[in-house]
Predict the structure.
Amino acid sequence: EMEDKQIAETLASATDGRVTAVRSQDIIARVTAQASREPGLAAVVLDLLDFDGDELYFTEAGELAGETYAQAQLGYESSSVLGVVGPDGKAELNPAATRSIATNERLIVLAEDDSAIKFTGESTATPSTPVSRFVESAQPKNLLVVGWSAMGRSVMNNLAGFLPEGSSIHIVARSKYVDPEELSDLSFGSVKVSYAAISGDVDEVIREAERTHYDEIILLGYRSALSRADADAHTLLTLMQMNHMFSDDTNKVQEARLVAEILDSTLLPLARVAAADDLVVSDVLGALLMSQLSENPEVAPVFTDLLDADGAAIRMRAVEHFAKPGSVTSFASLVARGSVRGESVVGYRVAAEGKSASSGVYLNPSKSTTFTPAAGDSVVVIA
């Protein structure tokens, strides 16, 4: 584990890749950026990293040699296919549905255990709705960031690559903990950036929140200026203040999605009571990734590809693109629909199962699993 990017790259190069450097703050920043993009993404990433649910595995092409990626997607009852590893060891996530699979290639699958990866034959599921191309929303987003640390710059750099043109980020931080000079030269691509130094009075936060309608509010801990316990206490207090503002009819602040960074996982129950929509638990992310790499170093480039703004990415698509709300739908039909759309379906989220965006996420259900989608539900894809 190390934080210096140049040393990490030099170490990997000098050892011909035999040493993998894990930069915890970079992982935390990327997951925070993912959580800020769409509801439920933080829960999906955490599920992929931890050892409680399904994990990433690599399996030989076997009977699928000579077949297409689309056929592979529907060939496993209890596993979800999300990519192919070529003979050179290079991982290709969500390739074209028509891509042929060679004998010496492997599939990247999400499974409960490697013993559960069994080819069961191609499903006969067909898309349940007419095919339509997904058009990414170009509507600019306004983000409010409350709190700051050296990691904040990395979070915003990762997030900026996903924001539509014309989006803005307004940063509010206590001058007691953050030098205003640190915020005066921030630039994140084409995203408009502004900042305000405050003393910490709640009225100041309210005034800043009233400046415009914010789509999302991201709470970052003052990890550089305070102890972990004090930084989390400050975040939790701010979180409660935000919820109070949303419920107070005398305030002009419109309710926005709240994403909060918690440094100490033991405070997770308190943070959930404070009702953030998504939580990023920092102290476990680096440890989980190191554990995954100790099990299988090959997953490193897969996670890198999934968490950066280039190449493949985890997305949450409205269920209406895959199935008709109110009609019983099998997971196999969602996979088939995704294949036609050029996306690898790996799960879905039922919005009604709790206020928190981390609730109701189902990764890698069996293909025969059925549910009745409703408006607000979403499908988890690699796209």
About this structure: The chain is about 30% helix and 20% strand.
